[in-house]
Design brief:
The structure is a homodimer. Chain A contains 14 helices and 8 strands. Helix content of chain A is 39%, strand content 15%. Chain A has one domain: Rossmann fold. In chain A, strands 1, 2, 3, 4, 5, 6, 7 and 8 form an 8-stranded mixed sheet that branches. Chain A is of the alpha/beta class. The longest helix of chain A is centred in the N-terminal third of the chain and has 14 residues. The C terminus of chain A is likely disordered.
C-alpha cells in the first residue's frame, strides 16, 4: 500500500467493490441467465467480498467436481469402461484362454447380455486385466495413445472434446476467484491425470479418484511403480468424503456432481460452517446430449435429486440452463447430433454397446 | 507485455537475468556458506532460469520433505509417539482392563523395557487405542489441545517450536521460486495437518502421511468421518513413492529426508529426467540438537547415507552447515541446551523415556 493517505483511501474503496459480479457476466457466457447462473455468481461474490459476512479466505476456497457426467459425457458408457473393453481386444491374441473365460469371452464375442451376467466379479476382472500388470508410466502411455485415437460412438469426436463448455467456464471462473478446483471421481486417478490439466486446467495433484495398489520396485536398478491387480480404493459414494478428507484435509465450500454417487460429497460439503454451494447437473437434453436420471444405471440421479430439492441445492437443467453444451469446435450445436433417443428408463444399461463404434439403439 | 517494442525488449532482458542467486544469499541466512548451501542455490537457480538448459516449468517444481528429523526434532521419541503415550494415560481411568493388558500396563507403569517387548503388535494397539474411535474433527481438537500444552523433555519448549530454522528458510526459499512444497511423512497425516500451515507454511492439502481408515456416517443426520482402529496406509520407505504417485501424480524434482525411511523417496526423485536434487539431514550435533545415524532406532541413517555418498546426493552436516538450529525465540543457541548425551549407538532406544517430562539418561 502507498504511503499517501488519500491514495490509500481510494485504493481501499476500490478494493472493497465486488468486481466479481460484473466480471462473471463474461466469465460464464455459455450459461443462460437463470437461477443456476445467478446462484453461482451470488455465491462467488459472497465468499470473495472482503469484509462481507460470508467472506472465505482464499486458502479455504476448495471446490470439488465429480467427473463423469458432471464435467464430460458419461453415456452411453463410462469412457474408462470403453478403454477397458478396447484393451481386452488388443490383448486378446496373447490370452488364448480368454476365448472361454468370462468376462473376456463375452467381450470378445460382443455379447452384451452375457457380459452383464458376469456382474461385479466380471467387472473387477475386466478392470484388473486391462489396468494392472504394467508400470504407472506404461499405463499413462496406454491412456494417452488410446485417447488420441478413440472416438465417441455418437458424437464422432475424441472423448476429450466432450467436456461440457459451461463447466469449463465455471472451473475457470472459480480459479479466477482464487478457488482451488479439484476433481473427485469414481474413475481411476491414473486414467484421468494424463489429460485433466489440458482439458480442465486441473493439475494432476488436484485429481482424486479410484486407485489400484501400486508397488515400488527396482527394475535393473531403476525405480518403477508397478500397478497391481488389486483394488486400493473406490472413490464413490461414501468414499468421496473419505477421499476428500484424506487427500485435501479441508472441507470443500463448493461441490458439483450429477448422480447419487455424489450425494455424500454434497452432504459433507453442506455440513460445514459458513457459505456453501452444492450443485447437480441434471441431464435433461436428449437432443444436444442425453436425458437420464432416476432409472439410468450410469449416472443414476434419484436420491440426490430428492435431497437437492428438499435442501435447496442448485439443480442445473442442462436443456434450460446451458446455452451450449460443448465447445466452439462443435460449430452450431446440433449439427453433429443425430439423437439416438434418451437412455433414461433403461435399467441395467451400463454394459451396453460393447464397441466404441456401435451406437446403442433403444432397448 | 507493453506494446512499446523498446520497453518490451528491456523487460525481456530484465526477466532473463537470474535473480535467484543474489536473493538466495538472504533467503538462507541460517545456513553457513558451504557445499550444501551452494548446491541448493545452484539447483534453484538452474531450474528457474528461463531458457536455461535445466529450466523446469513452475507447475513441475514439486519438492517433498520428510517431517520427523528433517523438519523438526524426532529425538528422543517421535512426537506423535509421546502424544499416544499421554493419550493412554488420559484415557486410563475409563479402561480398568489396561492395568493388566499390554501394551497399556507397561505404559501406565512407565516400564520401558516391558513396553518395548510388546513389539510391533503393542505399537499398533497403542496407536489404535489412542488415535481411533473418534471423528476426524474430534481428533484434530485432541492434537491441537495436546500441542498447546506438551513440552519437549530436553528443550522445554512446545514441539512446534522445534522446527529447524534452516529448513523453514529452505521451504520459504523454494516457494518464493514457485515450488510447491509437500510433506511426505511416516507420521499420521491428521496429526500433522492441524499445525503444518502455521509452522511450515505447508497447507493441509500438501501434507501426505500415514492414515487410519475412516468411515462416513450420518450422526443425528449430520455427516461425520469416524476414525477406525484399522491401518489404511503406512507412508514410509517404499510407501513414500507409492504415496507421492497417488497423491501428487507428479515426480518431485527436489526431495529431502534424514533416514533410511526416505531412501525410496530419494531414489524415485533421482530417477526422473532433467535436473534433480536429493538431500539428507545428517544429525551430527549433540550439543545443539542430537547426534545419531547408523545405530539409532529412531531415524536410522545407514543405507541412505551410503547411497547418498555413492551418488553425490547432498548430505547436510548439521553441525557444520547450520548457523543455528532453531528459531529466534531460542535466543543465542546453546543457552537452553543441557546436552544429555548423544543418542547414537543406542539400538532399541525408540521407546525410551515414557513421559514427556523425563529426560532420558544414557543407557
Amino acid at each position: 500500500m502507498t504511503g499517501n493517505p488519500i491514495i490509500t483511501a481510494v485504493l481501499l474503496v476500490l478494493m472493497s467493490i465486488p468486481l466479481t459480479r460484473s466480471r462473471a457476466a463474461d466469465a460464464l457466457p455459455s450459461w443462460n441467465d437463470g437461477a443456476a447462473k445467478q446462484a453461482i455468481i451470488q455465491f462467488v461474490t459472497d465468499v470473495t467480498t472482503a469484509g462481507g459476512r460470508k467472506f472465505v479466505p482464499a486458502a479455504e476456497r476448495i471446490a470439488t467436481f465429480d467427473n463423469d457426467g458432471t464435467l464430460w459425457v458419461e453415456q452411453p458408457m463410462y469412457t474408462q469402461f470403453v478403454f477397458a473393453l478396447d484393451r481386452v481386444k488388443t490383448l486378446a491374441p496373447q490370452h488364448p484362454e480368454w476365448k472361454t473365460n468370462e468376462p473376456f469371452a463375452s467381450i470378445l464375442k460382443g455379447d452384451r447380455k452375457a457380459l452383464m451376467a458376469t456382474g461385479e466379479k466380471g467387472l473387477v476382472e475386466l478392470i484388473m486385466a486391462s489396468h494392472a500388470g504394467m508400470t504407472t508410466a506404461e499405463f499413462e502411455s496406454l491412456v494417452r495413445d488410446w485417447l488420441a485415437k478413440a472416438q465417441h460412438p455418437r458424437f464422432k469426436r475424441p472423448y476429450t472434446e466432450l467436456a461440457y463448455q459451461p463447466m469449463l467456464e465455471l472451473l475457470a471462473y472459480l480459479r479466477a476467484n482464487d478457488f482451488k478446483t479439484y476433481i473427485v471421481s469414481g474413475g481411476g486417478v491414473e486414467f484421468m491425470r494424463p489429460w485433466t490439466e489440458n482439458v480442465y486446467g486441473v493439475p494432476p495433484e488436484q485429481v482424486i479418484g479410484s486407485t489400484v495398489k501400486t508397488k515400488f520396485e527396482l527394475r535393473d536398478d531403476k525405480p518403477a511403480l508397478m500397478r497391481l491387480p488389486e483394488v486400493d480404493f473406490i472413490d464413490d459414494k461414501a468414499g468421496k468424503p473419505v477421499a476428500i478428507n484424506k487427500f485435501i484435509g479441508r472441507r470443500p465450500i463448493f461441490a458439483f456432481g450429477n448422480s447419487d454417487g455424489d450425494l455424500e460429497m454434497l452432504q459433507w460439503t453442506a455440513a460445514g460452517d459458513g457459505a456453501r454451494f452444492e450443485g447437480l447437473v441434471h441431464h435433461t437434453d436428449a437432443e444436444r446430449e442425453y436425458a437420464y436420471d432416476r432409472n439410468s444405471s450410469i449416472g443414476r440421479l434419484d436420491k440426490a435429486l430428492d435431497e437437492a430439492r428438499e435442501r435447496g441445492w442448485v439443480v442445473v437443467d442442462m436443456k434450460r440452463d446451458w446455452k451450449r453444451v460443448f465447445g466452439e469446435s462443435f460449430g452450431s450445436q446440433g449439427e453433429v447430433l443425430r439423437p439416438t433417443g434418451s437412455v433414461s428408463d433403461r435399467p441395467g444399461s451400463s454394459w451396453q454397446g460393447l464397441t466404441t463404434n456401435s451406437v446403442p439403439g433403444k432397448n
